[in-house]
Structures are given as structure tokens and as C-alpha cells.
Design goal:
Elements (H helix, E strand, L loop, with lengths): L10 E5 L2 E4 L4 E4 L2 E2 L4 H12 L5 E2 H8 L7 H15 L8 E4 L3 E4 L4 E4 L4 H13 L14 H22 L11 E8 L6 H14 L9 H10 L10 H10 L4 E10 L2 E10 L5 E9 L5 H15 L4 H6 L4 H4 L4 H17 L1 H14 L4 H13 L3 H13 L6 H16 L2 H14 L5 H12 L4 H14 L4 H13 L3 H13 L5 H13 L3 H12 L4 H15 L3 H17 L3 H17 L3 H14 L3 H13 L3 H14 L4 H18 L3 H8 L13 H4 L5 H12 L3 H13 L1 H4 L3 H16 L3 H14 L8 H12 L2
Parallel strand pairs: 9-10
Antiparallel strand pairs: 1-2, 1-8, 2-3, 3-4, 5-7, 6-7, 10-11, 11-12
Helix pairs in contact: 1-3, 4-5, 6-9, 6-12, 12-13, 13-14, 14-15, 14-16, 15-16, 16-17, 16-18, 17-18, 18-19, 18-20, 19-20, 20-21, 20-22, 21-22, 22-23, 23-24, 24-25, 25-26, 26-27, 26-28, 27-28, 28-29, 28-30, 29-30, 30-31, 30-33, 31-33, 33-34, 33-36, 34-36, 36-37, 37-38
């Protein structure tokens, strides 16, 4: 196929009521820009440039997605959105489907060739001011002189105003932020109270250059002003918050009735002077059109604030497509976000669920249902909602598509390399968005043990949004993994100085107190946790591991049973199963085989979520129950073929344990080879289950012990002791002291063996005497004398 325009020509295209500028990726209908996604615009351009020739789907995929594997359905969905933007009728006036072949353009195309960039404004102004077409037809090859003169004269009438659209005045810099005030709603309809501000937020967040002050920061400023967090953000209050937050301006919205119509207004003012930055006003004929009208207003508003037209065109999805067309669904979703920020996952989950009940196609609401379930350690429920959100991701804005894709890759498939690529692309496209850096600082870099890289991303998270609480947690926890406990505490102090307070801060402080052997600190943080909603449950689970670490198994069992019962009572069976699995692993490690098997089976009655099933399989493998463990290993391999942690850590560990049960230590070492590159990383089960990190090293040490290779075994267990800040309160941190003694004894290093045994026995001085591993340790130590 031969394109109808020669390479390198500077041309605009016209068809029907539309004009297309390829360089600026702009589609105009009359005077108004028509929003298109980048891929839709590229498909339009391909079809235009091939005139009325048929373009196959394969050709479209090669042209628009040259370096990416895509499904054929992507083309169909994009064509559908393009037709919708063009207002194509059922007869497909502009884009015609050729069954079994592809598509062709159905309108005659007029070409406007421009000799220099300065002529762009003239050509567009000519069209918008007087509907004058400056055409270059292939057969004539040139314009008449009178046509050029007419075009310039007509353009001169309106060129000053039109040129502003193409070269907007830059009112805000890339470092400026805006405060979004609450809408002044005089309609009497409460559905607009929270909804329109959230819609405004969604629209502004699509901009890669404009940034808004977070709700968390606004709440902190209101607190400093001694105002309740729910104080209406309007009038003088909004301007004072704007000044105190260091923002450049405040955007105020309004909605009022005009007969049966709705009048919407937007105004942006400088915080200190009150000078106007921009304003917009528009009318909606019906309530159902309010979100669409608001979308169009914000697009124009962003241009007036200084964002380039090309950027607005590329990063502007209408609210009904980026969120939902239902005001009631958006209202529930908006309330859910507010409650999540203030009260957490449990309180916000019903609101997000309400949003998807009203609009089952609301992609973002499905994503937040999944996010809330994940916060509550309900992995399978989280995966189901996130998978639904990902399937609907085309009904979200570009930054939210990145968000949903990252959720899907981290929490559903577990493909961390794909998630890394997604988040790095997201960060480049939206450099002011803290979320991609937060995701990279989380499991994406932590699971493979890239704690230094994770720390850098955590610091970038805080730099992008100093009020994003999870950023401080990531700075703190990655410093912990790097062994920098003082720096970890400093991160918590920095968060507290900004008035930030989330459950993760208490968890981290408790872990730091454990690593510093600070008994008073442990008591203090446990009390803080129990004063928080739901804190009793997760703190009991953590205290159980700390008790077990020093051999106090009676307390550990009591605390675990308490946490499990509370989770079940709260309607969280997957979380209960996860904590049951952790208890089963502890029992297996300490030699209580019957109890380990009982708890492993109890786990499977509660949940088959990824981490819970992994824990059950671990416990059964360590307890020697190969018959029950093997089907779980096979199931995990089948269900999670892309999961990075499962394939590079969990499954190798399980297969090695089963090989050891069969007295095949060499095979166990072979299975563990795949885990070597990332064996110092953080297992997914560690995040909430508190077990699993460094297990490839521990099991490798056991394989060397089975082979009577004491020196190699000692190297593995010493490696675990050298990374105590990664292992935390996992039982292998305590048992590695005992295993080191056994390895030294095999290697003939009696003094080292005695010291290692004594280290373990000192730690377990007050441990329960009937724990099998303690009885064995005492007997082995006696034989060394």
C-alpha cells in the first residue's frame, strides 16, 4: 500500500467537519478539539494516509503497536472508541469495516500542505474563523495566489485569539501545585457534593505537568488551623489552606440550577493575591450530562493554566470513560477514597463495593475493592476484583490504567519484571506521580532483594509527595533490611513530624524494637496497635512470632489462636488462614510434626490463597507428609506460572524439602539453584504472614548437613545470621544458631560449635522444655563435652 502523502511533508488533513494535525496529534471538529487516546489517533492517521485503500488488522497492529505483542481485540476496541469520538452512525460513515479483511476510510480526504510552522496558525485560524479550506490537490499541485491572500486576510481577523490556543501562556511551572476546593452546590442535590470534586481530581491527575495538593496534606493543614478534617474547603478556608500548603493557586467549582439545566463554573485564583488565573463556565442540559460537561471544561481549563494543547489532547479521557457515567457510583467511590485515607480498608470496602454494584463496569472501583481486600490479607478476593478491574482498564484514564496494570501484575500474576517495566514507564510518563515509585519501592524491588534500589524509589516517593505516608514506611523498612536501624527510625520520625500515622508505622516500630532487643519498645508499640481499629488482630499475630523466637511456644500458640479467631469473627477467612499457616510453619520447624500437620490442614479449610497454601505446603513438607504436600506444590505451580517469587523462591524451596524427605540432598541442591540470584530477597509470605524470607538459604544449609558437608552448611546458616534485619522474627533466625552449631560439629570445629549451641540455648533459656528442637539441642550440646 502506498501512502497518499510524500514522506516529510508538513500537511494537515480535512474530512467532513474534521481537521487533523499529525504533528500536534490534534483532531478538531469545528472550533473544538476532539479527545482521542494516542493509539486511536495513530489508527486514524494510518487510515487517512491510505485513503480508501483497505488496511488489514495486522497492518494496523504493526503500525500502531510495532514493538509490543497485542491481541486483535485491542484494534477492535480502539476502532470502537475512534468511531465513538467521530460520531460515526450505524452506517459507518467514516470508518468502514471490510469483513474478513480490515478497514478503510469512507470519506474523501482533503490535504492542506503548509510551507512553514508559522503557517500552522494561519491555516487553523482560517478554518476556525471563516471555514476557508486551504487545499493542495495532487493533480493541481499548488494554490492560487488569490487563495493565499484570501486565507491570510481572513486569518488576520481572528488570529490573535486563535494563536493563544496553540501557544498558551505558561501560568504555572512544573513545580507548582493547586488546591482543589469543594464545589459550591446550590442545586439541593447532594449527589454533587463530593462527586464533582472527585471528578475534578481525576481530570487533573491525568495531566503529566499539573499537580494537585493531596487530601492527606489538606487534612494536615486543616489540623494546624485547628479545623476538623471534614471542614468544607471553600472561600477563605480554601485560600488559607492553599497558602499554608505552599500551593500556587486554588481551583473553585460551582454548580447551580438554571431552570431545568445545570450551570457549572470553574475558577482558578492565586492563593495570596486572589488574582484570577483562569475561569470556565458551561451548561448541562440534563443531570446525566454533568460529568461530560465537566470533562470538557477541565480540558479547556488545563490549557488556560498553561498545559500545552498536545499534552491535554494526549492525556485527557472523559470522566464517563475514565471513571463512570453514574453520579451515584462516583459518589460512593469518592466517599470510599475519603474513608480509606482516614480509617483504612475495612471501613472503605463497603463503599467501593457499593460503587461496583451501581456500575459493574467501573474499573477503578473494582481496583480499589481489590486494593482494600489486599490490605486485609484477603489475597484471593483481592485478585478476583483486580482481575476484573484490569479487564476493564480501557475504561480508565492513562495514569489509572498504569495503576490497574501494576496492581494486576503484582497481586494477580505476580510477574514482577513486567510490573517493574510498567512502573518505570508510568514514572516517565507522569514524573509528578508518587505512586509508580511507591510500587517500585515495595514488593517489586524488595522481593528480589534489591533493597538499595527500593530505598532510592522510596525516597523518590517522598520527594514526589511529602504527604504520601507509605513513602516514609518504605524509606524506613528498606533501611531496616539494609541494617540501618537508626535511619529507619528517622523515617518514622519524619512521618510523625508531618502528622502522618498509618498501621504500617506501628508494625515497623514494633519490628525495630524487636531487632534492638527493646522490651519496653515492644510493649509500647503493642499498646499503640491495640488502640487502633483492627490492631488487636494483626498485633497478636506478630507477638506470636516474637514469643516463638525465644521458645515460648505456649504464648505463641495462644496469641496465634487469638489472632485467627478474631480474623474469622471479622469475616476475614483468608487472613485467618494465613496466620494459621504461619503457626503451622513454626510448629514444623520446631519438630512438633503432629501439631504442624493439624494446623496446615486447618489452613486449607480456611483458604487456598497463594501465601496460605504455600505455608501449608511448607509445614507438611517439613513434617514429612509428602503425600499431602506434593499436590499443593503441583497446584501452586499450575496456578501461578508467572509469579516471580513463586517460581524463583517458594517452589524451589518446596521441591527441595520434598527431595530431602526422600533422602535426596543432591537433588535438593539442584532445585535451589534457581533461587540463588534472589535468595536474600523478601518472600511475599513475609509481608503479612511473617515467614518465608531466606528459606532457600536455610534449606540449602539443611541439604549440606544431610551430605555431611559441614563447612558449606555453616556458610549458609551464617549468611542468615548476617541478615538478621531481613529475617526479623521468623523462627529460622533463631534456629540458624543451632544449625550453625551442628555444621561446625560436622566440620570438626568444636569451639565454634560450642559457641553456636550456647548462643541458641541462651536465647531459649526460658523456652518451653517440651519443644522437640530444644530437647535435641541440649542433648547435642552435652555430647560436645
Amino acid at each position: 500500500m502506498t501512502p497518499i502523502d510524500p514522506p516529510g511533508a508538513k500537511e494537515l488533513y480535512a474530512f467532513g467537519p474534521f481537521r487533523v494535525d499529525p504533528d500536534k496529534q490534534l483532531l478538531l471538529r469545528g472550533d473544538d478539539p476532539v479527545p482521542l487516546t494516542p493509539k486511536a489517533f495513530q489508527i486514524l492517521l494510518v487510515l487517512i494516509r491510505h485513503g480508501q485503500e483497505v488496511v488489514t488488522k495486522d497492518d494496523l497492529m504493526m503500525a500502531v503497536w510495532p514493538d509490543t505483542f497485542v491481541e486483535e481485540g485491542n484494534v477492535s476496541r480502539t476502532i470502537f472508541m475512534l468511531r465513538k469520538a467521530l460520531g460515526d452512525s450505524a452506517q459507518d460513515r467514516f470508518i468502514i469495516t471490510i469483513p474478513g479483511r480490515g478497514y478503510r476510510f469512507g470519506e474523501q480526504i482533503r490535504v492542506m500542505r503548509l510551507e512553514a510552522d508559522r503557517r500552522i496558525d494561519i491555516a487553523v485560524a482560517t478554518h476556525t474563523a471563516a471555514q476557508v479550506d486551504v487545499e493542495v490537490r495532487r493533480r493541481s499541485g499548488r494554490m492560487t495566489a488569490s487563495a493565499v491572500v484570501a486565507a491570510v486576510v481572513v486569518a488576520a481577523v481572528g488570529i490573535a485569539a486563535i494563536r493563544w490556543v496553540w501557544q498558551p501562556r505558561r501560568l504555572l511551572t512544573e513545580k507548582d501545585t493547586l488546591v482543589l476546593a469543594d464545589f459550591a452546590n446550590t442545586t439541593g442535590d447532594p449527589v454533587f457534593d463530593v462527586t464533582l470534586r472527585q471528578g475534578l481530581m481525576v481530570q487533573f491527575e491525568q495531566s503529566p505537568v499539573l499537580s494537585v495538593v493531596s487530601d492527606q496534606r489538606i487534612h494536615q493543614v486543616l489540623q494546624l488551623m485547628r479545623q476538623p478534617a471534614n471542614t468544607p474547603l471553600m472561600g477563605e478556608t480554601a485560600h488559607e489552606v492553599c497558602e499554608r500548603a505552599g500551593a500556587a493557586g486554588v481551583v473553585e467549582g460551582s454548580i447551580a440550577n438554571l431552570g431545568t439545566r445545570y450551570v457549572l463554573g470553574l475558577k482558578a485564583r492565586q492563593c495570596r493575591t486572589g488574582d484570577s488565573l483562569a475561569d470556565e463556565q458551561a451548561q448541562a442540559a440534563r443531570k446525566e450530562e454533568v460529568l461530560t460537561v465537566l470533562s470538557d471544561m477541565v480540558r479547556r481549563f488545563r490549557e488556560r493554566l498553561g498545559e500545552s494543547l498536545g499534552s491535554v489532547q494526549q492525556h485527557s479521557t472523559r470522566l464517563d470513560e475514565a471513571t463512570t457515567s453514574s453520579l451515584e457510583a462516583l459518589r460512593a467511590y469518592s466517599a470510599g477514597l475519603q474513608v480509606h485515607a482516614a480509617q483504612g480498608a475495612s471501613a472503605s470496602l463497603p463503599l467501593f463495593q457499593r460503587a461496583v454494584e451501581i456500575d459493574p463496569g467501573f474499573a477503578l472501583a473494582h481496583g480499589w475493592v481489590g486494593r482494600a481486600y489486599a490490605d486485609l490479607d484477603q489475597s484471593d478476593l483481592a485478585a478476583a476484583s483486580i482481575e476484573r478491574a484490569w479487564a476493564l482498564r480501557e475504561r480508565a484514564s492513562e495514569p489509572e490504567q498504569y495503576f490497574l496494570t501494576a496492581l494486576y501484575q503484582t497481586l494477580v500474576t505476580g510477574n514482577l519484571e513486567a510490573a517493574r517495566q510498567t512502573c518505570e514507564t508510568w514514572a516517565r510518563a507522569y514524573p509528578r506521580d508518587a505512586r509508580p515509585h511507591a510500587a517500585l519501592a515495595g514488593i517489586i524491588h524488595k522481593a528480589p532483594g534489591r533493597f538499595g534500589a527500593a530505598l532510592v524509589e522510596a525516597q523518590r516517593t517522598v520527594a514526589a509527595d511529602p504527604d504520601f505516608a507509605i513513602g516514609y514506611y518504605s524509606v524506613g523498612v528498606n533501611n531496616q533490611y539494609l541494617g540501618r536501624l537508626d535511619e529507619a527510625e528517622q523515617a518514622l520520625g519524619a512521618a510523625a513530624a508531618r502528622g502522618l500515622d498509618i498501621d504500617e508505622f506501628v508494625m515497623l516500630a514494633y519490628e525495630l524494637a524487636f531487632l534492638k532487643n527493646d522490651a519496653a519498645g515492644l510493649e509500647r508499640e503493642a499498646a499503640r496497635a491495640r488502640a487502633r481499629p483492627g490492631g488487636e488482630t494483626w498485633m497478636s499475630a506478630r507477638e506470636a512470632f516474637v514469643a516463638a523466637y525465644s521458645g515460648d511456644m505456649r504464648s505463641a500458640r495462644r496469641l496465634s489462636d487469638q489472632a485467627i479467631a478474631q480474623a474469622r469473627q471479622a469475616g476475614q477467612p483468608e487472613r485467618a488462614g494465613l496466620w494459621e499457616a504461619g503457626a503451622a510453619v513454626r510448629e514444623a520447624l520446631f519438630g512438633n510434626r503432629a501439631e504442624a500437620e493439624r494446623r496446615a490442614l486447618a489452613t486449607l479449610e480456611l483458604a487456598h490463597a497463594r501465601e496460605a497454601e504455600y505455608g501449608a505446603a511448607l509445614a507438611l513438607s517439613m513434617a514429612g507428609n509428602v503425600a499431602r504436600a506434593q499436590p499443593l506444590v503441583d497446584d501452586l505451580a499450575r496456578r501461578f506460572p508467572e509469579d516471580s517469587s513463586m517460581q524463583s523462591s517458594a517452589l524451589p524451596v518446596l521441591r527441595a524439602l520434598l527431595a530431602l524427605d526422600k533422602n535426596e540432598p543432591k537433588a535438593a541442591l539442584d532445585f535451589l539453584q534457581v533461587a540463588s540470584p534472589h535468595e536474600l530477597g523478601l518472600a511475599r509470605s513475609t509481608v503479612s504472614g511473617l515467614f518465608g524470607s531466606l528459606y532457600p538459604i536455610y534449606v540449602r544449609g539443611e541439604a549440606y548437613l544431610s551430605l555431611h558437608r559441614g563447612t558449606e552448611a555453616a556458610g549458609q546458616f551464617q549468611k542468615i545470621l548476617n541478615h538478621r534485619t531481613v529475617v526479623g522474627s521468623d523462627p529460622i533466625g533463631a534456629l540458624s544458631r543451632l544449625q550453625l552449631g551442628r555444621a561446625y560439629a560436622l566440620a570438626g570445629k568444636r569451639i565454634g560449635a560450642e559457641a553456636a549451641y550456647d548462643d541458641f540455648l541462651t536465647l531459649w533459656h526460658d523456652g518451653d522444655s517440651d519443644v522437640p528442637v530444644l530437647e535435641q539441642a541440649r542433648a547435642e550440646r552435652a555430647q560436645l563435652r
